[in-house]
Amino acid sequence: MLDCKQKQYQEIRLEAFQYPLKFNPKQVSFGRHETFPIRYGWLSKGFQALMENPKIFNDDNATVTLGVGKNMVSAIHYWLQAAQLIQQQQDKQWQATPIGKKLFAKADNAWDPYLEDEASLWLIHWLIASNPVKATSIFWFFNRFHKHQFDEAELLNALKIFVQSQIKGKRAASTLKIDVSVILRMYAPSMNERGGLSEEALDSPLANLKLLYRDGKKFFTTPEARNIPYSILGFAIAELFQAQPHISGINLRDLIHSEGIWPAPAAVFRISEAHLLNLLEELTANYPMLYELRDSAGIHQLYRKCQLNELLPEQFLQHHYASLENAA
Questions:
Q1: Domain presence at residue 246
Q2: Buried-most residue among 179, 204, 289, 320 (CB within 10 A)?
Q3: Residue 247 falls within a domain, yes or no?
Q4: Quick one: CA dihedral 198, 136, 14, 241, positive or negative?
Q5: For the chain, how many structural domains are there in total?
Q6: Where is the DUF4007 domain (predicted)?
Q7: pLDDT at position 107, please?
Q8: Residue 124 belongs to a domain
Q9: Domain of 246: which CATH number?
Q10: Phi, psi of 200 (to 5 degrees)
Q11: Among candidates 50, 11, 13, which has minimal Cα distance to 308?
């Protein structure tokens, strides 16, 4: 059991937020994925290549090393940034983030270098969908677009309105259209003419999370009871506390429904209020020294019981992957 006094996780603590969780209209990016959603093996392959050669993404031989075309090299580089697995230093060199090393660095006894544990996919999804700086359209889709049934044209129109009203500077309509296409291809499994999964659907690991469903030209996203480990939820909530050091409690409605400024775990993970409460009960039961649910005048709030330097997001991940290793 974890408590506020344990310090063994200090060594893997993430550096101060490279990409803020809070939406800032002056810090956004669109269309940097070269039209490609994440594909199986890309994050692991790109990360390992960077470990061997910090200049790989500026290397003329990158296409040979990674075994993909030039545009795909750029896409891999982008998704590693969007998933917060690599970061650029002041000298313009790229290096692994602490969480990137823990997940993928084989030399450091990595947690899950091939993304074989579904919890890792939920983690990658959170790291992207809570990153308004590098993945603005995806952040918007999960935290600001709340329609449960829509088609591609409706989604594109909503994104255009958001950009026109909230973003500093103009963005090309063609760029936004590509962003919408990538979101749908990355999260909604494509079906072939026989009703089975198409080969393209198998290319995107995040489609396995089934956060989006496709029926002809219509898409559906319905909050439900998904198989999300409570430790991944604990990590997400701890990040929200770290990003808002002045608060000691978070209202449950802010964990359920995002206004588009801060990411809301229930919105990002597409889970219902009832399922969120179930996960929070598991979370507080397993980490009673870290979190506490309180009900005051009918208002549910989740409180941290630790100081911020003791409530580290990474300890939830460390605990999760350690439990898998012990069970093996």
A1: yes
A2: 179
A3: yes
A4: negative
A5: 1
A6: 30-321
A7: 75
A8: no
A9: 1.10.10.1470
A10: -65, -35
A11: 13
